[in-house]
Amino acid sequence: MESSLTKACTLKLDNFEGPFDLLFHLIEKNQMDIYDIPINVITDQYLDYLYDLQSPDLEVASEFLVMASTLLHIKSKMLLPDKKEEKQEEVDPREELVRRLVEYKRYKEFATELKEMEKIWEKTVYRLPEPLDIPIIEEVLEIDPQVLRKQYIAILERNKKKINVGAKNITKLIEHEKVSLRSKIREVVKYLISKTSFVFSELFSLKSRSKTEVVTGFMAILELAKMKKVKIVQNKQFSDIHVISNTAEERDEHHLYSEIENNIKEF
Amino acid sequence: MDISTMESIIESLIFSYGDALPLDKICEILELDRKTARNLIKNMMDNYNNSNRGIIIRELNDKYQMCSKPEYFEYVSKLYQIRQKQALSQAAYEVLAIIAYNQPLTKAKIEQIRGVNSDSAVTRLLERNLIREAGKLDAPGRPRLYETTDEFLKCFGFKSIRDLPMLDIEDLSQLNLDELIDVGNSK
């Protein structure tokens, strides 16, 4: 169902402060009673409006879509009376929507009032306080140094109790090291300069390296294999992984780097 | 000390202070109780506003400040270039309206009422010092609470938050639609 009204609407969503604002606009345009909204008409118009958008900005549109589904939900409820609810008191499915609309309308009206009031009060000018040169009265404090000392010791004592002995171990637990894939790729390449092949576990062993490093190292050899710089061979499950350089002849480091540099920029 | 002398002293205090001068400070200096001081100032404010003066005294949250009368702005502005504050967006006014009546409240509550994300409006209002953070809500995630500032009162001409116009805020959630329709039709 296409209504001429929405076709005439060449407004964008940006013109509305949100789904309530748009609903409100439609209600006013059609001179509907806000307390007795013809839900069919308003839902159709609201949806037409969304369809008419050429390229909705999803971020914005999502909030409008939530309202659309709310409207459809109410519409369906009004078409199909709930069997469970028939026995109980009839609840108008529009109630919550109306409540929120009326509430929103109030704030919108007050916002307009604020604008008007601001126009009056922005026309006032204030004098800034002048820095007055009033002599500062210095009071001599009489404190026994012994009291200070006692206080200081008390603070130290209190702090001692606060320090958690286990704290050191905890920081180790949550230490989050950053291992970049790029650095590991470079490491493998460097290692392959001197040898034509190596066993994965000799370079990345859990005995000498953190879990993160080993995992990233593994990802590094996968990436290099993808670039066709290395071959990876494993004879059977859980056996040693051999990493073999694909570049047969000796190459200098920089040459190799320049070849892969473009590929690893993203890491 | 007679009344007119006290008024003159208060006048000189408010003028000298420049900023909004707290009522308590006035009471302290003149050794007056709050009620008496308030009545004196109230009387002064009426005199200022109703006589041919170019200055008025404004009340902001139990503080008092002098400023030029808005109606003479076109002349005052000829003195110097007055920096125009950047206008607020429609969204910012709506958010401000919601905060004014429901403070302190969280951003989530604002967005629930408006049905849209209100981040940029809140940020803008914070920048303009019209709202400020008012601690955190004791709920999961400890969301920030917001409230309006004295600057808000100053910019929009309120004496205090109690001075806001009644929005006939009856709790709509308690009403059912039949009643709402009645309310609507009786308006």
From TrEMBL, chain A:
Keywords: Cell cycle, Cell division, Chromosome partition, Cytoplasm. It is found in: Cytoplasm. It comes from the Bacteria. It holds the Pfam family SMC_ScpA. One of its GO terms (cellular component) is cytoplasm. InterPro entries: ScpA, ScpA-like_C. The keyword Cytoplasm applies. One of its GO terms (biological process) is chromosome segregation. PANTHER family: SEGREGATION AND CONDENSATION PROTEIN A. Participates in chromosomal partition during cell division. May act via the formation of a condensin-like complex containing Smc and ScpB that pull DNA away from mid-cell into both cell halves. Component of a cohesin-like complex composed of ScpA, ScpB and the Smc homodimer, in which ScpA and ScpB bind to the head domain of Smc. The presence of the three proteins is required for the association of the complex with DNA. Belongs to the ScpA family. This is Segregation and condensation protein A. It comes from Ruminiclostridium herbifermentans. The lineage of its organism: Bacteria, Bacillati, Bacillota, Clostridia, Eubacteriales.
Automatic annotation (TrEMBL), chain B:
PANTHER family: SEGREGATION AND CONDENSATION PROTEIN B (PTHR34298:SF2). Its main location: cytoplasm. Signal peptide: none annotated. The keyword Protein biosynthesis does not apply. It comes from Ruminiclostridium herbifermentans. GO terms for biological process: cell division; chromosome separation; DNA replication. NCBIfam families: SMC-Scp complex subunit ScpB. Belongs to the ScpB family. Keywords: Cell cycle, Cell division, Chromosome partition, Cytoplasm. The keyword Cytoplasm applies. It is found in: Cytoplasm. Homodimer. Homodimerization may be required to stabilize the binding of ScpA to the Smc head domains. Component of a cohesin-like complex composed of ScpA, ScpB and the Smc homodimer, in which ScpA and ScpB bind to the head domain of Smc. The presence of the three proteins is required for the association of the complex with DNA. Participates in chromosomal partition during cell division. May act via the formation of a condensin-like complex containing Smc and ScpA that pull DNA away from mid-cell into both cell halves. This is Segregation and condensation protein B.
